[in-house]
Task: inverse folding
């Protein structure tokens, strides 16, 4: 690997980790087009490192909300201009949102790894896209939406989103954000509130997964790799921060179905360059 490749992969990770387009599919396709084997220990470690950069970015975006949830501040500022202060969302919402996925990932880790294959990712892109279109159609019935803002989320809805998240855990390429945002919409949560909650619960989920994987990968941090690891981390952080902020500000213009259509295009590319 060289600096240019590290920058490219860092950009791809930052662009795709938090929007519902499957970062797994993008990373496999990009590595293939660049001529790299994404299954080598060094490449797997690099993927973990750039994912940590994306985690740091989303943590910075939601830093005020995190401080409030941890009970470290009495004053709660709006996350973004025009958004009301937090009143109802609490730590239990987050626990309910992450517990099912963590349990499934812990008990079925080896089984999940056995499911990973290019064909699995290809079908996940297609089915996940259809799932998101169906969620948007369901959510168009305004009577179905009971939580328009993040702070109106109920504990039951948080748990339902956590259960929907298990789909992405068991099906590589389905997209964690895709399953949680669409799952939230199926549970009576608005598109924007579902996205906010999806991004928020991504922090502990990704920290747990990346931390666990790092236990087996830390030995690949050497003088030869630390340079491009650092480059990828920084690029991923910057790009992920920009993408999340842009997505949240333009969420009413970019509907979930637009990401679904993009997934269908990506599936076609996957079929052309990976499957054939």
Result:
């Amino acid at each position: 690997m060289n600096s240019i490749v590290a920058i490219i992969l860092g950009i791809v990770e930052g662009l795709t980790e938090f929007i519902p387009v499957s970062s797994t599919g993008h990373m496999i396709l990009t590595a293939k087009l660049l001529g790299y084997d994404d299954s080598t220990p060094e490449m797997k470690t690099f993927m973990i490192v750039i994912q940590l950069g994306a985690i740091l970015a989303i943590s910075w975006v939601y830093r005020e909300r995190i401080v409030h949830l941890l009970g470290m501040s009495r004053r709660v500022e709006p996350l973004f201009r025009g958004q009301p202060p937090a009143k109802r969302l609490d730590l239990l919402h987050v626990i309910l949102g992450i517990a099912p996925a963590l349990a499934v990932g812990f008990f079925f880790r080896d089984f999940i790894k056995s499911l990973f294959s290019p064909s699995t990712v290809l079908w996940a892109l297609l089915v996940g896209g259809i799932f998101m279109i169906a969620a948007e159609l369901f959510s168009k019935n305004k009577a179905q939406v009971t939580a328009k803002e993040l702070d109106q989320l109920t504990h039951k809805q948080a748990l339902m989103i956590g259960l929907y998240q298990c789909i992405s855990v068991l099906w590589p390429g389905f997209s964690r954000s895709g399953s949680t945002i669409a799952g939230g919409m199926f549970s009576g949560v608005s598109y924007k509130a579902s996205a906010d909650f999806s991004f928020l619960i991504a922090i502990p989920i990704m920290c747990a997964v990346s931390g666990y994987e790092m236990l087996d990968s830390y030995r690949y941090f050497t003088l030869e790799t630390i340079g491009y690891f650092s480059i990828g981390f920084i690029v991923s952080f910057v790009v992920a921060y920009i993408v999340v902020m842009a997505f949240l500000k333009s969420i009413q213009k970019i509907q979930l179905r637009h990401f679904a259509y993009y997934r269908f295009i990506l599936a076609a590319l996957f079929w052309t360059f990976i499957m054939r």
User: Anything to note?
Assistant: Confidence is low (pLDDT under 50) at residues 78-83. The chain is about 70% helix and 0% strand.
